Every structure is written in structure tokens, then in C-alpha cells.
Amino acid sequence: MVALQSKHDLALELLQTAGRATLPVTGFSMFPALRPGDLLHIGPHGSIAEGDVVVYHRHGRLIAHRVIRHSAGCVVTRGDRLKHPDSPVPTSEILGRVIGVERRGQPVEARKRPVVSCLLSGSELAARILHRLSRL
What we know:
Elements: H1 7-18, E1 21-24, E2 39-43, E3 53-58, E4 61-71, E5 74-78, E6 89-90, E7 94-103, E8 106-108, H2 115-120, H3 124-135
Antiparallel strand pairs: 1-2, 2-7, 3-4, 3-7, 4-5, 5-6, 7-8
């Protein structure tokens, strides 16, 4: 009998083997550019530039954050709503780059960090309220 894998494990395996996946956003770290429920179309990372949203695996989670710095062999990322950057990620650990975002069946642009992200930085409550208002 084959043991069932978690959704996370299946997504991770799909990205590692096929280099492509479509996954839902579950958190608020990239809000409002990426919202819970948005679908991320992830493809091979190829060349990575500042402003790209990349996906990597860390602490048992898949993370999709924006590249804020790129140097030889690694990238530094940060969630748009977060104050501090993540620890550097070796480019060999990047699973893919977000090549498209879908919200309610429509494509949306997530290339730039929205100004409102800075205003929501550090306020989980404000992000959740804005998210609920945007769904109405």
C-alpha cells in the first residue's frame, strides 16, 4: 500500500520533478499583490531578476516571496508586507518563478510591490480587514 502524501509534499515533488505547478496562496505576507485564494502559476526560474516572485522550500513550507537582491549564487527575498528580508536563498534551492497569477478566474499583475503593502507592513489585522473588504 502506498502512503498518501500531504498536499505540500505533492506540490514540492511536482515542482522538483516537473518544474511547473499551479498552487493557491494561503498566507498574507505578499498581500495585496498576492491574496489568499489566488492561484500562482509557477514555472522554471531561468534567470531571476529583482522584483520577480520566486518559490522555495524552507522550514517545511513552500514560500513565494519577491526578490529584493540578487548576487552570485543566491537571492534575498521578502514578503511585500514584511519589514525584514528572509535569509539568503541559494539559487540552487529556488523551485520556480511565478509566471502568472489568477484571481477569481482572471489574470492579475504581481510584478511590482504595491505601495499599500508598505502601509500594511506589520499589521496582520489591517491586512485581514482589507482582504475581507476586497472580497465584497
